[in-house]
Design a protein that fits this description.
six-stranded antiparallel beta sheet; alpha/beta; Rossmann fold; 3 domains; six-stranded parallel beta sheet; Elongation Factor Tu (Ef-tu), domain 3; NAD; 12 strands; 407 residues; Globin-like
């Protein structure tokens, strides 16, 4: 239990962390990696360069300061982050190292404002917060070990299929011939690669895009970047250098953005771009297990060349007795118009959702680019959909999609 004085001091620092949090976390990561470069084998380098990881940690630290006297409020956010940590291999022994450099960052960035009393209070608070993460993650590690495997495991690419001009699917089976693990629709795996010319291992998290129960796991990867300076190292390596017969390392499935399979209410699966991948898993699972459930599949893409799973979506929706799809193209091509590859033109905005959404008490699952998700969530709430009925997933470090969300 934290003392009242510690709680008072930590909460009083929340405004400072809101103002200078990213400055503190940027300094933190710089010094952490200088002292412990091996940790770069765990962290996503792209998120570091784009500032996403720094912002995410700043959000988390600010939330911890705000709710230090009621940490139970943060448990949903803790679990979401813990899934990512378990999938990346963050272990209990990493927390003291993180604590040491976080306190150093607070002290060095704030200077004289970081009095010994403040640093001591944060040291005490960090120990309590870290233990919450450690306990949650320990359960997740034990569950993964019991149901699947621990750490990374080699999988063989048994099929590679181009789904669109930018998305390619990789069908994976255990290299040791063991059975393919089950998972919850919407979950992801971490893929770890050793890329020639890179000093450290590279890892990325990709949704499983097929239904559970198949003899394979399928990930569908968007080739990121158009200019040489912006190319995604892992996605481009997978597209260009990983082929049938090759092996990649992956972790056991993780994530809490999952289809509620005990729910029989109508469901809306709403995606933009590569956000379609977890929705494919959910859609196909519903087709397997709840073929009479009311399903509305809404997907936004720039045009037909960029839309993945066109035939698969159509076939799956047609196999359901109470399902429909609404494909929205931002800039349809003449070919798209000629072949009627889309249903609506423009964006999935408030007006479109108003005409599509018929059941306000339904379950809504949203995945896609950040701006797409922010707008979609806001528009659903404007339509009268309750917050608890809206579920969403953002890939990468947790961010604030809504002003009142913690981390």
């Amino acid at each position: 239990m934290l003392s009242e004085n510690t709680i008072k001091i930590v909460k009083s620092t929340a405004p400072i962390l809101a103002d200078r949090g990213v400055e503190i976390t940027t300094y933190f990561y710089e010094k952490l990696f200088e002292a412990h470069p091996a940790l770069l084998n765990i962290f996503n380098h792209a998120n570091q360069k784009k500032g996403r990881q720094q912002t995410a940690l700043a959000n988390t630290v600010y939330a911890a300061a705000t709710y230090i006297d009621q940490l139970e409020v943060l448990i949903p956010a803790v679990k979401q982050i813990a899934h990512k940590h378990r999938s990346l291999g963050v272990k209990e022994e990493h927390y003291p190292i993180v604590g040491e450099f976080l306190l150093k960052a607070i002290k060095d960035v704030l200077g004289d404002a970081a009095t010994p009393e403040i640093i001591n209070a944060w040291a005490e608070a960090y120990g309590v917060i870290a233990q919450v993460f450690i306990d949650v993650e320990k359960e997740m590690y034990n569950e993964a070990k019991a149901q699947a495997w621990e750490g990374f495991k080699a999988f063989k690419v048994v099929n590679k299929i181009k789904e669109s001009s930018v998305i390619t699917s990789f069908y994976l089976q255990p290299a040791d011939g063991s059975s393919t693990p089950t998972f919850k629709p919407g979950q992801y795996v971490t893929v770890r690669l050793k890329v020639e010319g890179e000093e450290y291992l590279l890892n990325r998290q990709y949704s499983l895009s097929d239904a559970p129960g198949e003899n394979h796991l399928r990930i569908s990867v968007k080739k990121e970047g158009e200019e040489p300076s912006s190319l995604g190292k892992v996605s481009n390596y997978l597209h260009e250098h990983v082929n049938e017969g090759d092996e990649v390392e992956i972790t056991a499935p993780a994530g809490d953005f999952v289809l509620n399979e005990t729910d029989n209410t109508p469901v809306y699966l709403i995606s933009g771009g590569v956000g379609i991948t977890p929705m494919m898993s959910m859609l196909k699972r519903i087709a397997d297990q709840q073929p009479d459930r009311h399903v509305t599949f809404i997907h936004a893409a720039k045009n037909g060349a960029l839309q993945a799973f066109q035939e698969e979506v159509t076939e799956t929706v047609n196999s359901l007795s109470n399902a429909k799809k609404v494909i929205v193209f931002q800039n349809p091509t003449p070919s798209d118009r000629e072949n009627r590859k889309f249903d609506e033109e423009g964006y999935v905005d408030f007006n479109k959702l108003q005409t599509i959404v018929e059941e306000k008490e339904a379950s809504f699952y949203v995945c896609g680019p950040v701006a797409f998700m922010k707008n979609t969530i806001e528009n659903l709430e404007k339509l009268g959909v309750k917050e608890e009925n809206i579920h969403f997933e953002f890939f990468g470090p947790s961010i604030n999609l809504k002003a009142d969300q913690t981390a």
